[in-house]
Amino acid sequence: MTQFNTPDLVGDSPAWLSFIWIAFLVSISLMLLGIFFIPVDWWVKGYLYMGTLFLTASTLTLSKSLRDKHEYERLVNRVKSARTEQVLSKFES
């Protein structure tokens, strides 16, 4: 019964979070730098910058939405399990 009273405290390690941020910053910086130095007209560069901006924003939004959905499903499953445990404990008494 105590398993339902203690929340999950498992999180990402600081090393993993650092790796994620460094990888993100390096990749976005290299992409923007590559667009800056590509030998094309300004409007093509603008299109590529806009595409990079929207792709980055939509990727971040998608990952946040998927995480929120996963956390919601975990919460629903924990509530269902707690209710089942409560019904079973009343039935056994």
UniProtKB/TrEMBL annotation:
Coiled coil: none
Residues spanning the membrane: 15-40
Keyword Membrane appears in the UniProt entry: yes
Gene Ontology terms: cellular component: plasma membrane
Protein name: YiaAB two helix domain-containing protein
Sorted UniProt keywords: Membrane, Transmembrane, Transmembrane helix
Domain of life: Bacteria
Organism: Deinococcus indicus
